[in-house]
Amino acid sequence: MSGVNDIRSTFLDYFQKNGHEIVASGPLVPRNDPTLMFTNAGMVPFKNVFTGIEKRDYVRATTAQKCVRAGGKHNDLDNVGYTARHHTFFEMMGNFSFGDYFKDVAIELAWNLVTKEFGLDPERLLVTVYHTDDEAAGHWKKIAGLPDHKIIRIPTSDNFWAMGDTGPCGPCSEIFYDHGEAIPGGPPGSPDEDGDRFIEIWNLVFMQFEQVSADRRIELPRPSIDTGMGLERVAAVLQGVHDNYEIDLFRALIRASEEATGVKAEGANHASHKVIADHLRAVSFLIADGVLPSNEGRGYVLRRIMRRAMRHAQLLGAADPLMWRLVPALVREMGQAYPELVRGQGLITETLKLEETRFRKTLARGLNLLSDATEGMEEGARLDGETAFKLYDTYGFPLDLTQDALRQRGIAVDLEGFKAAMERQKAEARANWAGSGEAATEAVWFQVKDKVGASDFLGYETEEAEGVV
Ligand code: ATP
Ligand code: MG
Ligand code: MG
Ligand code: MG
């Protein structure tokens, strides 16, 4: 059985043997890309290489890229703790061809890696292709010998990738592993509610076209390849477990959380330990890459993730701040592959300690208010927006924390009411401000605050470049 560190190096070594340059992970805060909240795919650091703006001295590369999907278009925050396969922070391993090889070689490299190097049983594998992509389907048949019923044609955008409204785009092909049985666990109402039997482990993107304008798409003279394989998902397959949170790395983190709280990861408590372990990684890597908690932008996403984990620590009955005590376990597991964790250990520890100490002052009172406000509520009920806003404004509860706290009981939050309460408070603040005599400056100040405030609590519904394989 191989641990995540071995799997990562097997992947990189394999592609290096096949002529790829091993490139270190880029940072979680994308360089020169203000449109993207966090790096959310392996191709992000190579965007300009794919569009041809930037040249490198290699045409094949391979990476294990740090990714965060906790905001914007790809937000997996709500899945964590409930599905077997989603994290907020994860590593996406990939191989890239910049105008060098294309579909046939990409498929052959992928198939050989999974079946020979990793030794997966071909019987357990199946693939999807974009419905019109006969070429890819043909390669899967010829190279992998897959029967037609295991080459599934998908007509939706899931199997067609685009960098943005214009720029490179093309069909993709995803490799799934059949775990044989479904395990329950998706959030109620989500596509994962019935559990995942087939887990997507790898996505191969064939950058075949360029979208020149809304209605014009041309064939690229030298098409490119971009792939993404989730390290934690393939580790689960290789370690014979169905749930990502059962792999060596997560077991170590969950064990640390069990020891620090004295509460076993069983029954209802299991999800809390998973959330804590997942969020510990996300917040530590974000701080190591220079993000600090704040009330806006990236810093607010960080704070939301932290506070959510802190509520789960509270649920487990932790009497003192917990998260900072788990940092050594994370550094032990991942510090060798990511030295920035070792360098940042002091800052990560202090930041977590300070934030949790502060938040605990209002957390317990906020939770009491929440339980009083929802007393006697049945499944399907809705918490009024006023209360959700009071929790946000007075007790520092990010909206998603309140939603998470109520989800197990099937209670939703009245979002319209929440927004209305927020607006009302802003209007009152404006009225109270009147009379200082600096009307012009004030108007500007409120415009800025309105803008910032709106993006803060709505979870960054801003337009963001696709940037995802
Ligand atoms: P899913 O449909 O399961 O949410 P996806 O299609 O959104 O996955 P891609 O954007 O294709 O994922 O990313 C490439 C690979 O990265 C996936 O095949 C998967 O192995 C991995 N991956 C994506 N999202 C996550 C996540 N939140 N946690 C862990 N691994 C992930
Ligand atoms: Mg997804
Ligand atoms: Mg998918
Ligand atoms: Mg995919």
Overview of the structural elements:
- The protein has 469 residues and is an alpha+beta fold.
- Helix content is 44%, strand content 19%.
- It contains 14 helices and 13 strands.
- The strands form three sheets. Strands 1, 2, 5, 6, 7, 8, 9, 10 and 11 form a nine-stranded mixed sheet that branches. A two-stranded antiparallel ribbon has the order 3-4.
- The longest helix is centred in the C-terminal third of the chain and has 35 residues.
- The two termini are 28 Å apart.
- The structure holds adenosine-5'-triphosphate and magnesium ion (MG) (3 copies).
- The site of adenosine-5'-triphosphate has 18 residues, from strand 5, strand 10, strand 11 and helix 5.
Protein traits:
globular; binds adenosine-5'-triphosphate; alpha+beta; nine-stranded mixed sheet; disordered C terminus; two-stranded antiparallel ribbon; 469 residues; 19% strand; nucleotide-binding; cytoplasm; binds magnesium ion
Question: Which helices and strands, and how do they pair?
Answer:
Elements: H1 4-17, E1 21-22, H2 47-51, E2 60-68, E3 70-71, E4 74-75, E5 89-97, H3 103-117, E6 125-130, H4 134-144, E7 151-154, E8 160-162, E9 167-183, E10 196-213, E11 216-230, H5 231-238, H6 248-261, H7 268-288, H8 297-315, H9 327-334, H10 339-373, E12 382-383, H11 385-395, H12 399-407, E13 412-413, H13 415-433, H14 439-457
The protein binds adenosine-5'-triphosphate (ATP) and magnesium ion (3 copies).
